[in-house]
Amino acid sequence: MHAPADQRFPVKVELNGRQREAPAEPRMQLCDFLRHELGATGVHVGCEHGVCGACTVLVDGVASRSCLMLAVQAHDRRVDTVESLARDDIMNDLQQAFSRHHALQCGFCTAGILMSCVEFLERMPNPDETQVRDMLSGHLCRCTGYTGMVQAVLEVSRQRQENTVENDNHV
Q1: Which residues contact 140 (CB under 8 A, 6 or more apart)?
Q2: What CA–CA distance (Å, rounded) separates 43 from 24?
Q3: What is the maximum span of the chain, computed from C-alpha positions, in angstroms?
Q4: Is the CATH number of domain 9-84 3.10.20.30?
Q5: Most buried by CB count within 10 Å: which residue of 11, 60, 117, 150?
Q6: Who contacts 42 (Cβ-Cβ below 8 Å, separation ≥6)?
Q7: How far apart are CA 49 and CA 90, in angstroms?
Q8: Tens-place pLDDT, residues 7-59
Q9: What are the 2Fe-2S ferredoxin-type domain coordinates in residue numbering (predicted)?
Q10: How much is the pLDDT for 145?
Q11: What would the DSSP string read from start to end of 67-90?
Q12: Residue-wise over 83-109: b if at least 16 C-beta within 10 A, else e?
């Protein structure tokens, strides 16, 4: 027995550190749920086929295409969007590096790219250029090219490594 298409179910997520709940139709994409039901407008919808990467968010810490996931699949899970990166309206180190290296122009793809970079740097804190380019190959940007993005990610990686060494030396 299938639920009627117009039936809505409560979907509860931890969005950017806050518990949130809203109704969703069974076939509603996570990206539409985040944007239209929860107001997370930093999630951009591009191709709706998982190819462009503009809709990338973190689901339980893993970079995920929100256009390929249903809202109901995110029930009781942690979802982080680009809105989670800045604190008190101050951009985080990755966002600042993207700005310094002119790694964004129109900004449409930037949110998804940033979220992939966040997860990538968690998994691989000291990548080389080839590894960064490989990670970025899952995203389409028609404005910037990718050189500034690569430079920004490598800079943040170096800075974080230096900060880790400094913190270890002060213990």
Answers
A1: 46, 47, 51, 52, 53, 54, 109
A2: 17
A3: 63
A4: yes
A5: 117
A6: 81, 82, 83, 111
A7: 33
A8: 999 999 999 999 999 999 999 999 999 999 999 999 999 999 999 999 999 99
A9: 9-85
A10: 83
A11: TSSBGGGGTTEEEE-GGGT-BTTB
A12: bbbeeeeeeeebbebbeebebbeeebb
Please give the span between the terminal C-alpha atoms of the chain, in angstroms, as a whole number: 61
| Backbone phi and psi for residue 19, each to the nearest 5 degrees, phi listed first | -70, 130
Rounded mean pLDDT of 65-90? 97
Q: Which CATH entry fits the domain spanning 93-163: 1.10.150.120, 2.30.30.180, 3.40.470.10, 3.40.50.12500?
A: 1.10.150.120
Instruction: Extract the runs of DSSP E, i.e. beta strands, from 7-155.
Output: 9-15, 18-24, 56-59, 62-65, 77-80
Q: Which structure tokens are listed for 125?
A: 């804190």
